[in-house]
Design brief:
It is a single chain. This protein is α/β, with parallel strands linked by helices. It has helices at residues 41-48, 71-77, 94-101, 110-120, 122-126, 137-149, 167-182, 194-200, 218-223, 225-231, and strands spanning 3-12, 15-25, 30-34, 58-61, 64-65, 79-82, 155-159, 186-190, 203-208, 211-217. β4 and β5 (64-65) form a beta hairpin. α3 runs parallel beside α6 (137-149). It is globular, with a radius of gyration of 17 Å. The relative contact order is 0.18. The mean pLDDT is 92.
Length: 234
């Protein structure tokens, strides 16, 4: 088991945001968390990343408890988090952003990592000297993914990668997610576009107000009438 989350409870002050959430991700899978705004999806990723702390339970990565591990150490261990809203360094160039993603890697790996990202995202190669804040939304999302890849992650957590993108770019981002997974990266995906998320995932968990209310194969949930009605516009 690559990631095991067991009974996590997270509070924002008096607000009980996550209420005993448990789920797991096996090596090589794409697992998606779907649910309405405020269901706790982003909070779950932030808790795994060490940005928020759970009052209870366990979070294990490759058999090791990571609840007290710092976010920077988690990157070293192989967990990358592509945050909601991209969060790239707007004033830096594309190349400088990518270098920031590799700060924990040996310098010798920098060139290979950069070449790998540019091969996956030829648009970033074309824009390598451009200031990141001037890129289009889709290019900024590619840069956020590329920056995460520079750390050579085993598990990539992606928070709303399609948010704010035109439909043609949404398809492109999901093709990239499938390609990353095919080349060996395990993916935990949080996504408002439930139909797209379920179409690429192996398994899914449905969150409602901080609880997991349904889980199953992605294809099974795509066909589930209650899921269709609530999240797929069916």
């Amino acid at each position: 088991m690559m990631l095991k989350v067991e009974d996590i409870n997270v509070y924002y002050g008096a607000i009980h945001a996550l209420k005993g959430i448990s789920f797991e991700v096996s090596e090589g899978e794409i697992v998606t968390l779907i649910g309405a705004n405020g269901a706790g999806k982003s909070t779950t990723l932030k808790t795994i990343s060490g940005l928020l702390q759970s009052k209870t339970g366990d979070i294990e990565f490759l058999g090791q408890n990571i609840q007290k591990v710092s976010p920077s150490k988690l990157i070293d261990m192989g967990i990358a988090h592509v945050p909601e809203g991209r969060r790239i360094f707007q004033q830096m160039t594309v190349t400088e952003n990518l270098e920031m993603g590799a700060y924990s890697r040996p310098t010798a790996e920098l060139k290979d990592g950069m070449e790998d990202v540019f091969n996956r995202f030829p648009r970033l190669r074309e824009r390598s000297k451009q200031v990141a804040g001037t890129l289009s939304g889709g290019e900024q999302q590619m840069l956020a993914i590329g920056r995460a890849l520079m750390g050579r992650p085993k598990l990539m957590m992606m928070d709303e990668p399609s948010m704010g993108l035109a439909p043609v770019l949404v398809q492109q981002i999901f093709d990239i997610i499938k390609e990353l997974n095919k080349s060996g990266t395990t993916i935990l995906l949080v996504e408002q576009n439930a139909k797209m998320a379920l179409s690429v995932a192996d398994r899914a968990y449905v969150l409602e107000t901080g609880r997991v209310v349904k889980e199953g194969s992605a294809s099974g949930l795509l066909a589930d009438e209650s899921v269709k009605k609530a999240y797929l516009g069916g």
